Structures are given as structure tokens and as C-alpha cells.
Amino acid sequence: NAGVTQTPKFQVLKTGQSMTLQCAQDMNHNSMYWYRQDPGMGLRLIYYSASEGTTDKGEVPNGYNVSRLNKREFSLRLESAAPSQTSVYFCASRTIRGPQSNTQYFGPGTRLTVL
Amino acid sequence: AQSVTQLDSHVSVSEGTPVLLRCNYSSSYSPSLFWYVQHPNKGLQLLLKYTSAATLVKGINGFEAEFKKSETSFHLTKPSAHMSDAAEYFCVVSDPASGGYNKLIFGAGTRLAVHP
After folding, report:
1. What chain B residue is nearest to A55 in terms of C-alpha separation?
2. Which label site among A4, B42, B85, B102 has the fewest CB atoms less than 10 Å from its CB?
């Protein structure tokens, strides 16, 4: 049981390049989330998928797109990277049933630098 | 609107002494509150959570937190710090009136240093 996994762990892009961050969970969770973490600001929600087939904007969605590929996988795409998107990106997941339904579980993060 | 304020950006303690990390929140409804820990270059791990049961919540690794509605606080404590406690700690609130468990609001974090 690997929990939440993210690829890649590190990435360096040039301004204007595109890339997709991958996230997968093996806990049969319904909801999945993408956050970014910047120094001194905690984590901010970019997009989330409350259930398979749905996605919604979070606090900072501009410049990003997401795809809920299936129940396990939720990807984050940067179409034209900008230096302001330099950050650490975290994926999380949550079940919607049972006593753990209030808890999000996080992946190890992807450290992205845009030059 | 809900918000979370972690009152100290850095806390430094000696090994074996008590730890106190302070958190205040604002919420329009009965919130759920969480503390997560992040060790260097790692993801976030849940330490403990309050979801309207007992106001004193015990978590992993000897940490506990007390929900005080009158003070809108959820401070994290540990009686005796260990070197392995050095990490960043996040206080998090979830408000059923605005997104519930889909929209967590994070504090800015408190970096805990533990000295020998």
C-alpha cells in the first residue's frame, strides 16, 4: 500500500514550457486535490476532484488545468510555465465515507523550478 | 471567512523541554481542526484532528491539542521535545459552511527547532 505517489520528484522548466505532474493513490479514495506550497504561505488549493468525473477550482487555479483520469489518478498540467509557478506541489486524497472521511492524505511532493 | 493564524513562525526548544505551538482560527461555524507535520523534503503527515468530540485531542508521537471555542484556539503541545520533532507544523481548519473537507485552510506554518 503506497498511499499517494507523485511523479516526478523534481523538475526544472524554462518559461513557456509545458508539463504534467502525475498523482496516483491506491487507497480507493473518492476525492483528490492539488496544492502548491510557497515559503511562508502554507498550502493553497489549486484544483480538486470531489469524485471521479468532476473537477473544481480552488483558491489559485490560474495557469493550471487538471484531469481526473480515473478513480486512482489526478494530473495537474502547466500549459505555459511561468517563474511565478516555481513552488512545491502536493497531491492529496480523501475518502468520503467512514471515520477517516474528514482527513486528507498527502503525497511526497514535486519540487518545480521555472527559469 | 475562515482563517488560521499560527502565532509563531519559528519556535526553538531544548531537547526534553515542553513544546507549545500556538494556533488561532476564525470560522463561521463549528470547524474541524487539524495539525499536520512536515519533515524536511517530505510530505505532510497528520498529527491529530478535532471534529467536535472531546476537546482534548491526543495524536501521534506524544502530541496533543486542546480545542478552546471561547478563545478560538487550538494550540499544540508536547511535554518533552525530542530531536526527531524538528520539523514544520501546520494548523489547518475545515469549515462545513464553506467547502467542508474539500477546502482546507492552512496556517503559514511554525518551524520547530530542537537543540541538544
Report:
1. B102
2. B42
